[in-house]
Amino acid sequence: MNIVTAAQITVQCPSLPGDIQSDQLPPIYAGQPINATLIFKTSFHWAEKEGKQRCYTMRYDVEERVKDWLLCGRKHGDFVATDGGSFAVPLTLIALHHSEITLPKVDVRPLPISTQASMGSTVPSADVCQVHEVEKVLILPRGGRSTYVVDLTVV
Length: 155
Hints:
By secondary structure, this protein is mainly beta. The protein has one helix spanning 49-52; strands spanning 3-12, 28-29, 33-43, 56-62, 69-73, 76-81, 86-95, 99-102, 106-110, 113-115, 120-122, 126-130, 136-140. The protein is 3% helix and 49% strand. A hairpin with a 4-residue loop joins strand 10 (113-115) and strand 11. The radius of gyration is 22 Å and the shape is elongated.
């Protein structure tokens, strides 16, 4: 294993004071834009010694779940992975319905490396850990008017 990447989507609320914990977030409503950050942390701990000195180009894709989330920002892109390095991308999420919704998954894979010795390209081995995999965001229904139908037939 050459590269291990931890991918995490963190949800932020810019209107919060700094002393409020993330488990005390204010309510989030369907249709409300949510600021988030996609963070990648890479490790070459399990790589061979010569592999630890390298840097690798990685490509990421954020899963598009059109039934749950509208995503704004860089959903696809490349970054350079170094041992112990990190890379962050701002995103905006908009929940399309109310429910407990899991955050989108992120696919990360290394791009091929061209080597002089073999006159070709090799792809380093890699694994991705979804740090936010079991987290859910509680989305509340948007308040508004209610319509009632009342049967006024007299018997």
